[in-house]
What we know:
- The protein is of the alpha/beta class and 400 residues long.
- The protein is 38% helix and 14% strand.
- The protein is built from 14 helices and eight strands.
- Strands 3-4-5-6-7-8 form a six-stranded parallel β-sheet.
- Strand 6, helix 11 (298-301) and strand 7 form a beta-alpha-beta unit.
- Helix 7 packs parallel to helix 9 (231-246).
Amino acid sequence: MAPPFRADHIGSLLRPQSLLEARKCLSSPSQMYSLEIPQSVKDAELQAIRDVVQVQLVKGIRPITDGEYARHIYYGGFFEKLSGFEARPDLPIPDAFRTDFPTTTGLARMGAKTRAAVMCTGKIEYKESPYLSEWLELRDNLAKELWSQAKFTIPAPNYQHIQLKPGTAWTKDSGYTSDQEYFDDLAKCYAAELRTLYDAGLRNIQVDDPHLTYFCSSQFLEGCKKDGTDTDELLDLYTRTHNQLLANKPADLHAGMHLCRGNMSGSTHWVSGSYEKIAYKLFNETDYQTYYLEFDDLERAGGFEPLRFLPKGKNVVLGLVSTKTPELEDPSTMKERIYAAASVIANAQGVSKEEAMEYLAISPQCGFSSSSLAGGVGMTIETMWAKLQLVRDVARDIWG
């Protein structure tokens, strides 16, 4: 099965200065997690979304996204809008988090003393849609026949759980007695959200789960060992939850998963290493159709060898263009790498390279601005569009 677009992107885009200025009043963690957004900020978000949609239409950039302009960070506004969750804006580092968790240890090196998280303090229920209003803000800037060319992003269900100290993602007062109970109810909420968004016209959802790559990190694995956590069981719990949320997905709602290794401002990443340790389970034991994988840097992301585990019927979007550096990639080198990836798949599946090419697409390796303040060193809005147009043009050259 071919991916929905040969030229894709991960969804988040650099924020315009007008939006950054408007959001200055939401600078503290408690304000970022507040459900009360000043009208001036909302107006700036709506205008920025209108503008960025029009640019994508004019430049032929697909899929069309809202740049995640309504969020302070890529996972913002989801968990805290589900019943049973409460934002904790200033949990202490490292005490509240997993031992040697790559993100918090990295933040600590930068001088951070606290980090925000959202904890479960009661029964998790879906009483209102966290993201319907955001989807409508994107959708309503498009003619109905273009809704299918849009993509919407959503954080993975394990985002809060994986970073928090074992046993603390849900409190004793929540009524939960096991992680499985916690995730069973959370998966129901995700399934309900997919149905809500689908009923409102969404046909392409991307679940962002950068933390799955932490299972390729010796630092994370050793930290789990210190905490007494069985990482095989933990990974099984997470992949099982992904499948639970997808179990009743409408057949024509395309679902993809994005994995990366961190995308903080200043081109910062948190872990490095090949997908080798998780590739078989990722491709064969999760029910996604598409996997958005970063491959722009051999040292950070590894080579294409793990693609040998890709089964027939699924596809991969190769993240070959960096959002971390402003230099434009060489189109010829990009094409060589695409053909190299196809060769790995062709040899493993016993098909021709031409057939293997049908399972591939290309994109930048991550979003351009996973949070309001994130952005690669030297990256400008002009460079961002140049990179997206490069992806578009290379894809056209190869696939037509």
